[in-house]
Amino acid sequence: MKLQLPGKKTRYWQVFWLCLLAAAALFAPHCLVDAVAGGGYFHYAGDFNDQQINFYQYANSFIKQGGSFSWATDLGSGFVNSYSFYLLGSPFFWLSMVVPARLMPWAMVPLLCLKIALAGGGSYLWARRWVRDEDWSMLAGCLYAFSGFTVYNIFFNHFLDVVALFPYMLAALDDAVIDGKKGRFPFWVAVNLLNNYFFFAGQAVFLIIYFFCMLAGHAYKIGPRKFALLAGETLLGCAMGCVLLLPAGLSLLQNPRTIDPFNGMGYLVYGKAQQYGAIFYSAFLMPDAPYFKDMFSEGILKHTSMTAYLPVVEDRRLPALNFQPPLLREHRLYQADWLLRYYNFHASELLTEAEPNFDPYLDPKCTWAVRHPAFFPVEVNTASKEELLRVPGIGPKSVLRILAARRVQKLGMPELKRIGVVLKRAQYFITCNGRAPAHANRAEIANALLDPKAFSVGVQQLSLDEFVPKALPDAAPAVHQLTAHGVAAPAAARMVREEALTCLTRRM
Questions:
Q1: What is the distance between the alpha carbons of residues 234 and 303, in angstroms, rounded to a whole number?
Q2: Which of the four, 46, 223, 277, 316, has the lowest number of CB atoms within 10 Å?
Q3: Would you give the distance in Å from CA 298 to the centre of its chain?
Q4: Using CA atoms, how far apart are residues 500 and 476, in angstroms rounded to an integer?
Q5: Which among 67, 47, 65 has a CA at the least distance from the CA of 55?
Q6: Is the pLDDT of residue 98 over 60?
Q7: CB burial class (10 A; 0-12, 13-18, 19+) of residue 22?
Q8: What is the pLDDT of residues 159-211, one digit of tens each?
Q9: With 50 as the cut, is the pLDDT of residue 50 above it?
């Protein structure tokens, strides 16, 4: 590779403004549509709507109030622990502090445009050293700024922070090794480390590989003295970044969800073999659209992590912060989503015009079974995979085990128990070798099908002031209504359960 030394004149600002205007033109139609449709600011999908906008708005207000610990995030945690990964070290977030918290939703698009513009300018600075023609260097900068990764990950707002800042660190490494310029590299190392410690690990690996490739290609010529100086600048940059890295790391080590650093194989290999195939796939084919369900009405569904409203941000248009989320509703939606994705159910089978709401006392699968008594019983030794998936108490893993086991033997109740079938429910809907495992009246079957979560009471609920015994938030609405009228929680749960049992028995 022949080295092309950069001239004194630079087209950095041309690339910057070109990318900025292109990004603005890209977002402008969507902003106008959102302004007309309602809301007045840009909405995209997924985490951008559910997290990124809320994080920026909440953190803006929280810092200005001088807070350090919040009950509104992660059910109570330190601010550094919660937001060091998303925004706390980002220069773009600190730039947004000049904007009032209430206006942050409208500031997200200008910040996105700024990130894309800086990404284009930074990649141009790196490319102009290695590309003869300045025009091609400008094109390289624009292509990087609007790469597939950038456009795809708009809804992961903090990903674009990394895209914007990394080229400057790469260009600073070239400046340090080739031109002997001091001070730039440790500064950009610190900026990138402060910006996002997680992505910095990948950036560091890339820089090491890049460094040795440049040495092998004779683009870098470095002696022991220059190498020692470069190592010192690297350590200096990392030390400056530890201002945020150390408290974030100490907080993360206290998180029980992290893997054991002493025997965690997650550092070395992926837990699922399919992930290696996905990596290979991504190198040759386009990525999936982030939210197919926003584009198609049927056939493609995505799991969502938040199906219940979580009161985090205070606004007059939202429920109060002391609003109790309807966790039973979330539970039913989660179960229905599972049936659609893994049990071959269709939405029209779960909800109908006559019954547009989920049953608070039965999970959706049991509700379907009660509505279709003619479908049962199912013979476990001959039934198809689709038929077995319809049986309450039999899940996808159990179905696969049944299909495998019955090839070599006839299955009875002991075998089904070892397989993992929930016999408390399944025994009323199956036959084994033509014989029903259990004989019960309708009341006994109804009692086995009722969801115990709908009648959960008596748990000491955490309050900031005291421990208050009351019905769990995921109990059925009828339980809450009775407790609101002064009925003791255990008595309210018992009364509602007896009524639900009577009604279900009549339906069967």
A1: 42
A2: 316
A3: 22
A4: 11
A5: 47
A6: yes
A7: middle
A8: 999 999 999 999 999 999 999 999 999 999 999 999 999 899 999 999 999 99
A9: yes
Around Cβ 123, how many Cβ atoms within 10 Å?
A: 28
Cα-based distances in Å from 342 to 143, 378, 386, 399: 40, 19, 10, 11
CB-count exposure of residue 248 (10 Å: 0-12, 13-18, 19+): buried
CB 313 within 8 A of CB 320: no
| CA gap 328, 351 in Å, rounded | 17
CB 50 within 8 A of CB 306: yes
- What number of residues does the chain have? 508
- Assess contact for 64 and 13: CB atoms under 8 A: no
pLDDT averaged over the chain? 82
State which H helix or E strand residue 53 sits in.
helix 53-64
Which residues touch 85 (CB under 8 Å, ≥6 apart)?
Answer: 158, 196, 197, 198, 248
- Read off the pLDDT of residues 444-466 as tens digits, 9 standing for 90 and up: 888 888 888 777 754 433 333 34
